[in-house]
Amino acid sequence: MDFSYSTTEKAFQEELRAWLETNLPSGWLDGERKVPKDEKEKGIFLRDWQRKLYEGKWAGISWPKAYGGREASLIEQVIYEQEMVRVKAPPVLNIIGTAMIGPTLLQIGTEKQKDRYVQKIINGEEIWCQGYSEPNAGSDLAAIQTKAEKKGDRWVINGQKVWTSYAHYADQCFLLARTDNSGKKHNGITAFLVDMNQEGVETKPIRSIDDNPIFNEMFFNDAIAYDEDIVGEINEGWKTSLILLSHERVGVARRTFAIQKQFEELVDLAKTLQKNGRSLIKDPIVRQNLTRFRARSRALLMNYYRHLTNIIRTGRPGPEGSMDKMASSELAKEMYAYAMTISGSGNILWGDDAIVSADWQESYLRSFGFTIEGGTSEIQKNIIAERMLGLPKDVKY
Amino acid sequence: MVDFALNEDQEMFQTSTRQYLKSKGGLDIPRRYMDGEAHILQEMWHGLAQQGYLGVNVSERYGGLGQGSLSLVPILEEMGRAIIPGPYPETMAIAVPLLEAYGTEEQKEKYLPEIVDGKRKLTLALLESNGENSPENIQLAANEEDGEYTLHGTKVLVPHGDVADTLIVPVRTGGVHSEYGISLLLVDREDTNIEIQEQQSFEQTRKIAKIKFKETKVAKQQLLGPKNAGWGALQSAMNDLHVALCSTMVGGIDRVVEMANEYGQTRMQFGQPIGRFQAIKHRIVDMRMDLESSRSLTYYAAWALENNAEDMIEAIALARSFTSEAFVRTASENVQIHGGMGFTWEFDCHLFLKRARALENYLGSSDDCLEIAAGELGW
């Protein structure tokens, strides 16, 4: 067992730290983290940030050097996530593009697709979203109904998507559409690259529980794509989407590290809050609850390291990712809930009137999404049960 | 390089221990032991010695392998999986560390080779009257005179009191209630007159005894570690024991998850295996998560112990508290998943549940551990 980084890994870490010191927006490291509230301004702010990341070669670190990446190792990618969490860096606006779509196009895209899209993904010139979920599909991704029909040289797309992150910023969409209805539902799906800036594509923000427009509905009304926009083979979109997912190599690293930090913040909160003239953390019940969270957040991190070791040894991610995903989202949710519980009556004040930082309340509400998005906890449990424990599937797919 | 897994040698320990215990009857060992066949333990103990498992963390010059706490992890896990009776954790993780760190040359030469050879089992006779693990409760008096100690008093809840050849006994040689004044004595059964009364145990594979010392004479050479400052020495060895207990509990959790999983796949109800129902399936997954986290926390605690890491005390306390709770939780769930069968004596479920409860409060509760961790964090 060994928990240390190699000399090269340490050098990588230091280079990134030094870069962040000079390149994060001014005041950022001192805690003045101001991301504009207005969605339009926010978009400009985040595009600027990604441009800066790109210029420093920190936008798509696992990418080939020829395309502006660093060909970073798995551990370097983990270090990257860790450092970004440490400074609470602004999010990468084109995360879907840099983490998954770019690498997928580089792997299985045509030359034309690579020329057309790849550079603009990493430098943030074109923002991408993923057209996956549909109102009636939910966790059953293969049940999608959005249709693409070949008419002459065009594919005509009709249907509705939902829960699409970043769609209101997006220029391009990686879309799964049904191209054949005759066989099993996993067959007959095709992956398209669809231009969002065309008539026939409409996005409508969904106001979420935490009052942020992070998701959108997308409507496709005779939207157009061409053969050259297909990734992989016609009717083999399911395979393409699996290739896409395989690029998510570091998995829930960011959430795992974020939880360590959020735990520290929860402790700070308990130290700040007073009850009967003393710091709340001196209350044995509070203290023990916090120590339990400490044990669980440490377990999460150590599980992650064990799973990572396994990935390094075998060369591929296993179903353990589902354990990390489920445990981290459930724990984050419980920790925010506990912050609400100990915050006292002031916790019902919102926004600028909040006594305890409103971040807790926003995070609390936001965290209800954690155990739903990217596969609900229940779906993760099914995956763990079936793939790790060999238990029977509960329904026939 | 981040590498958080057992190494090849340690994995080999795991495989060979499992094979050995299986060849000896696996869960038949605790079953027969609790039915009164005391020789089972003795036979197994000699086998363990032959395989080298009793010398893992003993220095090479006394016949051991000279390995650290991480190498005990896989062996203890396997013992936990099979609910093995006997003082393996106490011998390897209290007696060996204490002897290695504090033993005189004479003591080391006497005890360590005999431990390695399987000729001597040791346990800790710590608790008195109310069973609370604190320095105030050490009242067993040991008066020094003419080169020997005379002991007066009673120890209770002594694990494996029926089979241990030597007891490590914290006694009061000075002070009244404080940490100061506690000394550790090595008390050999063959040389002393002590009265051992077996106490009825909730967990029948792990026997406990009340031990009475009346004018018991112990030679001065049997003092282990510094006189009057034995409490500190004991606490350092207690870290080893807590990690060892965590590993045996992880083994127990591993086995109950396996049992629940097997049963879920084979037990048919309403025309299908019960593991197809999410109500059962998701319970088993929760158990598997408990296993994963217990194992990670325990590995880390063992690593921290072996490397004397800065956060060692905290790491051990967190592992102990989480794992103790997880073992009780998973062993209880296992009974539920087995339904009526799980409620019978014949099925093995209850062995694990009772072991979990027997270890839960052994030398400290989960809450005690949480308070230790909180203290380490400066709260």
Short recap of the structure:
Chain A is of the alpha+beta class.
CATH superfamily of the largest domain in chain A: Butyryl-CoA Dehydrogenase, subunit A, domain 3
- Give me the CATH architecture of the largest domain in chain A, please: Up-down Bundle
Strand-residue proportion of chain A: 5-15%
Largest interface: A-B, 47 and 45 residues
The shape of chain A is: globular
Helix content of chain A: 40-55%
The tally of beta strands of chain A, per DSSP, is 10
Any idea how many domains of chain A?
3
Helix fraction of chain B by DSSP (H/I, runs of at least 4): 40-55%
Query: What is the oligomer described by this structure?
Result: heterodimer
Main beta sheet of chain A: strand number and arrangement?
Answer: 4 strands, mixed
Residue stretches of chain B low in confidence (pLDDT < 50, at least 5 long) are none
Question: What are the salient characteristics of this protein?
Answer:
heterodimer; A: 397 residues; alpha+beta; Butyryl-Coa Dehydrogenase, subunit A, domain 1; Butyryl-CoA Dehydrogenase, subunit A, domain 2; Butyryl-CoA Dehydrogenase, subunit A, domain 3; four-stranded antiparallel beta sheet; 14% strand; globular; B: 379 residues; 10 strands
Topology (elements, then pairings):
The complex is a heterodimer of chains A (397) and B (379).
Chain A: H1 7-23, H2 39-55, H3 74-86, H4 95-108, H5 111-122, E1 128-131, E2 147-151, E3 154-161, E4 172-178, E5 189-195, E6 201-206, E7 215-226, E8 230-231, H6 237-246, H7 253-272, E9 274-275, E10 278-279, H8 284-314, H9 320-342, H10 358-367, H11 377-388
Parallel strand pairs in A: 1-4
Antiparallel strand pairs in A: 2-3, 3-7, 4-5, 5-8, 6-7, 9-10
Helix pairs in contact in A: 1-3, 3-7, 4-5, 4-6, 7-8, 7-9, 8-9, 9-10, 9-11
Chain B: H1 8-23, H2 28-34, H3 39-50, H4 69-81, H5 88-102, H6 105-116, E1 122-124, E2 141-145, E3 148-159, E4 166-172, E5 182-188, E6 194-199, E7 208-219, E8 223-224, H7 230-266, E9 268-269, E10 272-273, H8 278-306, H9 312-337, H10 339-342, H11 349-360, H12 366-376
Parallel strand pairs in B: 1-4
Antiparallel strand pairs in B: 2-3, 3-7, 4-5, 5-8, 6-7, 9-10
Protein name (chain A): Acyl-CoA dehydrogenase family protein
GO molecular function (chain A): flavin adenine dinucleotide binding; oxidoreductase activity, acting on the CH-CH group of donors
InterPro entries (chain A): Acyl-CoA_Oxase/DH_mid-dom, Acyl-CoA_Oxase/DH_mid-dom_sf, AcylCo_DH-like_C, AcylCo_DH/oxidase_C, AcylCoA_DH/ox_N, AcylCoA_DH/ox_N_sf, AcylCoA_DH/oxidase_NM_dom_sf, Mycobact_Acyl-CoA_DH
